[in-house]
Amino acid sequence: MNALATPRPTSYLDQFDAAQDADKFPLVRRWIDTEPLPFFKELREKRPILVTPVCTLLTLFDDVTDVLNMPLIFTAALYLPKMGNGIYLMAHDDDALHSREKSLMQGMLNRDDLPQVRTMVATIAKKLLDSANGHMEVVNGYCRMVPATLVQDYFGLTGIDKKDLIEWSYWSQNDTFYNQPFDLLTDEKRKEISDHHNQTGQQLSKYIEKLILERVLAVKAEQAEHAAFAPWYLLRMLGRKLLGKKNDKLTDNIVTRMVRTAYPGAVDFDIQRLGVNAGGLLIGSIETTSQAVAQVIEYLLDDPEWLPKAKSAAQSDNPAEFDGIVWEALRFVPISPYMFRQAASDYTVAKGTDHATTIPAGTYVLTVTQSAMFDPKAFENPDQFIPGRNWYHYFHFGFGSHECLGKYVGMVMIPEMVRQMLLRSDIKANGGIDYQGGHLPQRYDLSWGGA
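The chain above was modelled as a monomer; its predicted structure follows.
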């Protein structure tokens, strides 16, 4: 995962062209995983669209944004078998369900909440770090635990062990994004990942059904009491029993907002669709946040120039400077170097240029967003670390119609988690991130305060 690895003396493309067809993509896959920046730089300069026997890579900013802006031509079809054959909105491309449910959920995730959310994240993070006595394996103890706690406290997925939430998020992310045709896995490993995802997906579905039932009853009790409806106390007693609380007064959170809202029939957002979207709040929150936070912390701890600057910025009450450092670090170590799509019809990318390429229907396409973030057309002096760049040119939360639903929550959660860690005195890493052979961080040992 060293994005700054030194390129080999021999041209990447010379090696690629000389290889047998069966060996071409394994070479590309290895370079993506171990030497991404020099490899992508050579592609941008010599062959911006690389056709391999498995998939086609796009490396220039304009080509990447062009493709990602056409979801009916370059589709998320590879998501379908991973997301219940289209049960969740992110497996839909530019259709009524996608636009309707995404807009409804964006309304529930009110951006006016963001100052409160950042304060919640800071409080959760500080409590975890304070109790660690100066030493922690941070992937499981912090990077996953903070978003899991926010999933309960702000999103409202309560009444379940955080470790279950973490496991459900992990296997969903692992299967959806790292168990694809361009991930070089054995058949046994593919089955292991998909079996875990299916098993945990069933557990999540049962939990969501129970959660929504309990929340509906509690909300009806609340509404009946306010309406002075005679048997309201019976509903309150039932809701209190289901919630396991002496005080059944509901706190504000996203699931409760969803249940409290009356949706006209024409909106087509019944209790089943509500539950599906409640589960979606979990899936995209924990593992992506964990990876981004761990990798940014590691990047900054390894950078003798920017670590003291980041620590200084972390002391400020105005988060803008510190946040800019985090987003620039994530450009060098993104959670994924690409977003994948599948062509639904033939399309010529970069038409009118000397690298115009027709992509046939059915082709797997890797829009190499990390490369696009080093394209000089969009990023001046791209090899330099320059915080405060144009935010709209980053791809940290995706791009186009499939941009992350919880983008704005992530925009306060990720930098605040990094900030709280860098506020610890004498913080140091006891080794690098351990990915245990996969793409997702599994262990990262840190200590601070002389421990």
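The first strand starts at residue 49 and ends at 51.
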